[in-house]
């Protein structure tokens, strides 16, 4: 239990930094300097006002200096990242794979937050992620679909090629309908989790995206050509593959 509490607290603290990344990366700002500030009045956030989730609740969701409302996204990201760290620890135990998968889920949160607002997936996340994915997948990580077995170099490279190649092909055939960020994101996921994860992620992401697209068409009146960022749906598919890929594969086969 103590390990789970520790994992949540670390995840929530990291989640506070993820909020900085979500806000600053697409605006081409440094994620290190200056320190955290109110988006409205630019006043530095005091240490006592920067406690994940708790400070938001104590301040009533407002800046102490100017009284402007603070987006609910901030505590939501902190809470979600903390819960996902607990889920990774529960699923994979304590080891190198847990640390790497925690970094993966955090990167997926940042990708989702940025893609929802700006419809871009920064190279600053995916390109280092591809390198980490290939190295970790080759040397350290288990196969999410057969956790008693290592993923290995061959499966990692095949996953990288499947993720990047499949989405590049979609981009060519759709004449730009698929963004370069999605291609690099899936190359990262494939290198870290293998080709099975690529296709399960694609299936789940496409299914979820279709439901949301139909909902927006019916409820919001959006047209069929309205742009909907695909990154958040791929992130959802990746998480489901990470936590439940083995069970879903067994259910499908048997």
Write a compact overview of the structure shown.
The protein has helices at 2-24, 54-58, 73-92, 96-118, 123-139, 152-173, 180-193, 195-220, 231-253; strands at 142-143, 146-150. By secondary structure, it is mainly α. Strand 1 (142-143) and strand 2 form a beta hairpin.
Characterize the structure shown.
The structure is a single chain. With 254 residues, the chain is an all-alpha fold. The chain folds into two domains: 1-94, no CATH class; 99-254. Helices cover 68% and strands 3% of the residues. The protein has nine helices and two strands. A two-stranded antiparallel sheet has the order 1-2. A hairpin with a 2-residue loop joins strand 1 (142-143) and strand 2 (146-150). The chain is globular and about 55 Å long.
Which structural class best describes the helix and strand composition?
mainly alpha
State the end-to-end distance. 35 Å
Tell me roughly what share of residues is in helical segments: 55-70%
Globular, elongated, flat, extended or rod-shaped: what is the shape?
A: globular
Largest sheet: 2 strands, antiparallel
Radius of gyration based on Cα positions: 19 Å
Strand order of the largest sheet: 1-2
Ranges where pLDDT stays below 50 over 5 or more residues in a row are none
Q: Helix tally?
A: 9
- When the domains are counted, the total is 2
Strand residue content: under 5%
Overall mean confidence score, pLDDT: 90
Reading the helices and strands in chain order gives: HHHHHEEHHHH
Number of strands: 2
Descriptive terms for the model:
globular; single chain; 9 helices; 2 domains; 254 residues; mainly alpha; two-stranded antiparallel ribbon
């Amino acid at each position: 239990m103590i390990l789970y509490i520790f994992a949540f607290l670390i995840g929530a603290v990291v989640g506070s930094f993820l909020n900085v990344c979500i806000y600053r990366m697409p605006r081409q700002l440094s994620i290190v300097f200056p320190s955290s500030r109110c988006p409205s009045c630019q006043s530095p956030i005091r240490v006592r006002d920067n406690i994940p989730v708790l400070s938001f609740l104590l301040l009533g969701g407002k800046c102490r200096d100017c009284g402007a409302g603070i987006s609910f996204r901030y505590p939501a990201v902190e809470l979600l990242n903390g819960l996902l760290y607990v889920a990774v620890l529960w699923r994979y135990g304590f080891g190198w794979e847990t640390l790497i998968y925690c970094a993966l889920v955090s990167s997926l949160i940042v990708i989702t937050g940025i893609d929802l607002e700006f419809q871009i997936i920064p190279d600053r996340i995916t390109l280092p992620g591809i390198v980490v994915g290939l190295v970790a997948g080759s040397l350290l990580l288990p196969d999410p679909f057969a956790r008693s077995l290592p993923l290995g170099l061959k499966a990692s490279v095949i996953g990288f090629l499947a993720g990047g190649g499949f989405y590049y092909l979609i981009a060519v055939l759709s004449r730009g309908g698929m963004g370069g960020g999605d291609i690099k994101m899936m190359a990262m996921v494939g290198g870290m989790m293998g080709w099975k994860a690529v296709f399960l992620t694609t299936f789940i992401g496409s299914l979820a995206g279709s439901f949301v697209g139909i909902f927006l068409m019916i409820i919001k009146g959006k047209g069929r050509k309205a742009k909907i960022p695909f990154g958040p749906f791929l992130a959802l598919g990746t998480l489901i593959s990470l936590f439940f890929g083995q069970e879903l594969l067994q259910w499908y086969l048997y």
